[in-house]
Design goal:
four-stranded antiparallel beta sheet; 8 helices; globular; binds flavin mononucleotide
């Protein structure tokens, strides 16, 4: 199956480094958070948290998050209009036991946010490259909440405005493992 056989919202998604200067309006921001909010989660724990930095409306919030990113990510993420740090409660609120599904649930919420973003003509790029411990301190996370990733969100930009190294990565074909490497019939390794 090639991406063209998928739903256009999924087929057209990619992780860009080029963003236009256009702001992500507050209604779009709220809609992305609602999309994440309505994801399913283990025991309906909803372990996710999101901290937003809007470059146009709250430049100091944006700068605080940008400063937490790895330098290689800062190069292009500085142009995004919206940065989001994602985090999760690592223990169940009812029992205190470790919630080993917290990262899974956060990822699912980000997946929903991603589809909502695509439907609104927005693009986003997730980043593991940030100082997670410094982010937790700087952003005032309470004990028990751990930072996972950052996300740059905005409108598609012109790849020609990127530095050459990033421009060629932006235009490189997207690659994936073959379906036969990830999906099996009945037993691991058995062809579908
Ligand atoms: C959890 C996560 C962390 C990532 N971290 C980074 C990162 O720090 N820097 C970066 O440039 N891309 C990062 N990416 C983007 C991936 O490299 C990208 O999703 C992957 O190459 C597939 O490309 P596509 O999203 O365009 O299909 C990350 C993606 C995810 C989901």
């Amino acid at each position: 199956m090639t991406p063209s056989t998928l739903h256009p919202l999924l087929a057209s998604r990619f992780s860009p480094r080029a963003f236009s200067d256009a702001a992500v309006g507050i209604e779009d921001q709220r809609a992305l958070m609602e999309a994440a909010r309505w994801a399913s989660s283990c025991f309906n724990e909803q372990p996710w948290s999101f901290i937003l930095g809007d470059r146009h409306q709250h430049p100091e919030d944006f700068a605080r998050i940008l400063d937490l990113l790895a330098p290689a990510n800062q190069v292009w993420a500085a142009a995004a209009p919206l940065l989001v740090v994602t985090a999760a409660w690592r223990n169940f609120s009812r029992t205190g036991a470790e919630n080993m599904h917290a990262w899974h649930d956060l990822g699912l919420a980000v997946g929903q946010l991603t589809v909502e973003a695509s439907a609104r003509g927005l693009v986003l790029h997730q980043m593991a490259g940030l100082d997670r411990l410094r982010a937790a301190r700087t952003l005032g996370l309470p004990e028990g909440v751990e930072v996972a990733t950052a996300i740059a969100i905005g409108h598609p930009g012109d790849p020609e405005q990127l530095p050459e190294a990033l421009r060629s990565r932006e235009k490189a074909p997207r690659v994936r493992k073959a379906l036969s490497e990830i999906a099996f019939a009945g037993l691991f390794g058995q062809a579908l």
